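request received
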Amino acid sequence: DAGVIQSPRHEVTEMGQEVTLRCKLISGHNSLFWYRQTMMRGLELLIYFNNNVPIDDSGMPEDRFSAKMPNASFSTLKIQPSEPRDSAVYFCASSFGDRPKHFGDGTRLSIL
Amino acid sequence: AQKITQTQPGMFVQEKEAVTLDCTYDTSDPSYGLFWYKQPSSGEMIFLIYQGSYDQQNATEGRYSLNFQKARKSANLVISASQLGDSAMYFCAMREGANTGFQKLVFGTGTRLLVSP
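response:
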C-alpha cells in the first residue's frame, strides 16, 4: 500500500514567494494533519482535518499560512508571502479512527 | 504545562545491549493513547509502537516494547538488542480523548539515540 505522499521533498525559494506543499493521504484515511518541525520548537501541529473539514487550525502561525482539502485524498499547505522564519520540515500525516498516524517523508523548506 | 516530557536529550548504547528511553505524560483524560516514533537522519517519521490507556498488557512490536506504568504516567520505550540502524531521534507522543477519529497528537522534544559498535 502506498503511504502518505508529500511533494516536493525539498523546496528552496526566496522570501516573499508563494510556497505550496502538497500531500496525498493513504487511501481510506479520513483525518489529515500538517505538522512543522524545527530545532527550536520541535514538532508542532499546524492544522488538522477530519472528513475534509478543518477541525483545529489554532496551530497555524498567522494569516500567511492556509491549508485546504479539496477532496478526501489530497491537501495543500500554502505560505504566502514566505519568510525566512518559515524554514522548517513540514510533515503531513493521515489516520483513520483509532489507528496510529502515518507520516509522509516531509518537505524540507528553506526560505532565503 | 508540558503534556509529554522526554528528559533524555541524548542516549548512548552499545550494539546488542538493551536501552530504555523515558517518557512521562500529563493528562486528566481517562482515555488516551501513547505512541513512539523514530526519526532517522533521513528525516521521515516512522511509527514504532502504540499503547492505549485501557490496554491491560504492555505493547510489544518485535524488539520494541513499551513499559506502561499508568499510576506513574510513564510510557518508556525499551529497545532490546540494539542495532546500529537504531541510531535516530525517538519521539513519544500522546493522543487524548476517546476514539472520535480526531487523532490530535502532542509530541515530546525527542531523545537522540546513538548506537555504537
